[in-house]
Amino acid sequence: MSRRRRADKGPRVDLHCHTIHSDGLYAPEDVARMAAQAGLSALAITDHDLPPVLGSGVRNFGEHSIRLVAGVELSTMHENRELHLLVYFPGEMPADFAEWCRDRARWRASWYDESIDLLGLDIPKADAQARQGLRTLTRVHLARAVVAAGITSTLHQAFEQYVGGSADRIPELNMAFLDALSVAKDAGGWTAWAHPPPKQAEEWAASFAAAGLDALESYRPNKSARNRLSRLSHGLGMGISGGSDWHGWEKRKMGSFRIPAQVLHKTDVALNLHN
Prior knowledge:
alpha/beta; TIM Barrel; five-stranded mixed β-sheet
């Protein structure tokens, strides 16, 4: 039997998605239930700068069950570009790292308030949950606020002109990619660079690998750079990761993008995705 056919018959996973606790549409329980009903064997809910609301381990939804992998997507900066770092744990997320993430979510609340002031928006500031680190306010929340205020007519315009990574109207994030990577590795996390642009990956992946980065997220719904990133990752002796980056706003359903765990090689082993 070919390697491809063996992988096709193995467990299916998704290691990147979001809930209403950051910039997703659905509650964590609903996301996990939809993933289980779609036939996924493992799911990592990776809300921005936030420890997993549902924790980790097997959850049952009627006749369906799914293993939740503890994960988070950290928002960072490197050479004036915003980069995201996915951090996973095969078991529970360590309490000290979870609290460190919650501090990041609390900082995002103050960042959101400062951004509102700089944009001149007459809207409410961060709510109590955000200030307590129970949910994360992101650029998406700012973009929706810009549209709601009538400053732009579309989210695309809001990102391009006001709140996107290339705009200079709001404060930069205050966490460097390599610093976040160091904290994650010290906590025992398995790390992956989320949706890396191929050009930047070819420029920076070697130095990131030397600093301890474990994988590149090459297996994504957009197939255009999958082989290019996978070759780069393997050439550097790294693993590959993958996920839908599902938020609930898109047309495709949760679980429609599924990754055979076996193709993730080192990530499969590190996170016990076959168990």
